[in-house]
Write a structure and sequence with these properties.
With 340 residues, the chain is mainly alpha-helical. It has 14 helices and 4 strands. The strands form 2 sheets. The protein has a two-stranded antiparallel sheet with strand order 1-4. The chain has a two-stranded antiparallel ribbon with strand order 2-3. Strand 2 and strand 3 form a beta hairpin. The chain is globular and about 60 Å long.
């Protein structure tokens, strides 16, 4: 499965889909309740979209399956809380601390992973994820174990001359939206840069990339580190949303769920696949969950059906629909000169 690539758009900072996503997410608090949902689900969706876009750098673009990535979401949450409690309760400082600490853990982990591939890479990500989960659960003096790190504040947005409160969910949503807007622009440019093209090439054939002179190990190390740093930012936002940091998000269950989100959305074939997958997951949770406690079973069955019949996911289905629509449009009639 090849990643969707549009050469005409690679030099643009703002494309049609980016503008559409900014409009949809930017206006979401104005209409979400009218469709039967609630404000907090918007916060959750944006946080997990940020996490999924970072994760897709590994899975969708580089073909590296990480099944322990939830650990880095949790590390970001703990780093944000500890920076707030122990160092300086400033929003920007704590967000930077969450990114830096989580990226550092990712960088150390990637030293052991960057020369592995396939099943060996995947198994080692599980092992490291479980190591970090075990440390978080047992290092009670720092993480408070099963009780979690409680009373993490939603720190005000300090703009120098003015401070903006993010105490309620609507205000927190727009902080998450601002982070999403910056991240999606940067990731779009990154994935369509020469660096991103090398990542695509590694996914297709790692041996050939090494043969033409690219340092494959360094690329894999860097993309894993960056993906972990983005997970740390999502973890920091999640800590504010939940007003605490808990070890459950570091478990294999949540690591598996982010994989499901990306695959069912079509992360292998489209930059926007993770966004589709996250939205589907949370809408399914709230809509199906209103009728049955076994909603996750039905979501899993949906995933199985997609993998069997449409492994490109939702994004692949959309691309096929657009191709069919283009083929069925009548060809323009060439203009001819009138004789006279």
């Amino acid at each position: 499965m090849a990643m969707d690539y549009a050469p005409k758009q690679t030099t643009a900072w703002i494309t049609g889909p980016i503008a559409l996503s900014l409009v949809v997410f930017g206006t979401l608090p104005l209409w979400i309740e009218s469709v039967g949902l609630y404000q907090y689900i918007g916060v959750e969706v944006l946080i997990w979209v940020i996490f999924a876009l970072g994760f897709n750098l590994l899975l969708g673009y580089t073909g590296l399956p990480s099944f322990g990535h939830g650990a880095f979401l949790g590390i970001g949450a703990y780093a944000f809380g500890l920076a707030q409690f122990e160092v300086w309760p400033n929003l920007w400082f704590c967000l930077i601390a969450a990114f830096t600490v989580t990226a550092a853990f990712g960088a150390v982990t990637a030293l052991f992973l960057s020369h592995r591939r396939g099943i060996y890479f995947a198994l080692m990500t599980i092992a490291f994820g479980q190591i970090y989960y075990f440390i978080a659960s047992k290092w009670t003096d720092v993480t408070h174990g099963e009780d979690g790190l409680l009373n993490i504040a939603r720190l005000p947005v300090d703009l120098g001359l003015v401070e903006l409160s993010i105490a309620d969910n609507g205000q927190l949503y727009y902080l998450c939206f601002a982070v999403y807007a910056v991240l999606v622009l940067l990731l779009w440019r990154l994935t369509n840069s020469p660096y991103g093209r090398v990542l695509r090439a590694i996914k297709q054939n790692e041996t050939r990339v090494a043969f033409v002179g690219h340092p494959v190990g360094l690329y894999k190390w860097s993309v894993f580190t960056l993906s972990c740093g983005i997970a740390g930012i999502a973890g920091a936002l999640f800590a504010m949303a939940q007003e605490g940091a808990y070890i459950n998000v570091m478990s294999l269950q949540w690591s598996g769920i982010i994989v499901l989100m990306v695959l069912i959305g079509g992360g292998f074939v489209s930059f926007w696949g993770p966004v589709f997958g996250v939205i589907l997951y949370f809408v399914a949770r709230d809509v199906l969950g209103a009728y049955t406690e076994t909603w996750l079973l039905w979501f899993g069955l949906m995933f199985v059906v997609l993998v069997m019949f449409k492994p490109d996911g939702l994004a692949g289905m959309w691309q096929d629909l657009m191709r069919r629509r283009t083929r069925t449009q009548p060809a323009p009639v060439a203009a001819t000169k009138a004789e006279g």
